[in-house]
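Chain A, query sequence.
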Amino acid sequence: MRMGGKRSAPERPTLPSGRFGNDGNRIGSERLESPMSTMHRLGSSAICLMIPVFLLLSCGNQGQPDGKAVARINGYAITAADFRRELAEHTYFNDIAAVSLDDKRRVLDERIMRELFIQAAVRDELHKDEAFRQAIEKYWEQILVTMLLKKQADQLSRDILVTREEVLAKCPAAAEQADQATVDERCAGVAEQLREAKKSEALEYWMEQLKRQATVEINQQGLEELR
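Chain A, predicted structure.
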């Protein structure tokens, strides 16, 4: 959340008119790429795209004071609450059990440098550049698809059932064991593998049904003539 600051808020980026209407909804018959391929393609690359785009967008959100500032850069305040959230994310993604003062200083230094980059970019009006608008569109699509797939996968997981017979079929070494604890020990991970496989299968079926129920028009001649 941004507060204070000496720079003026940049204009909100306008999405390309060929893909979105005035209300932000998609128009035309253009399709997103396969949700499954998008899900596999995301990850660290999507995060790398998200961070600079989000930070540059947020420079127009002044917000309300949210605690004392841990640093100020040209009048812009990094609040303690915001920095704590960023520090918590850093420790989580870097498997840091207990954060040290050096960790805090390093993360804060990186945050200050990013803020200086953002301020320089806004001064140069890069947020009005066509490349930035395209990055926003790409970010919007990727995150929206990822959220949808995660929501659907979570819903499908509730209906997935793995039986003991299925586990034993994949783990014959424990088939003769009557003790459930012994079976669990010898077949550790098999049940989870079966669950994930069933979830993937259910998700693929859901995506296939999504395509079957949609009206998709393809200009075959235009496709063939494309050079």
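The CA atoms of residues 205 and 211 lie 10 Å apart. Residues 3-146 form one domain.
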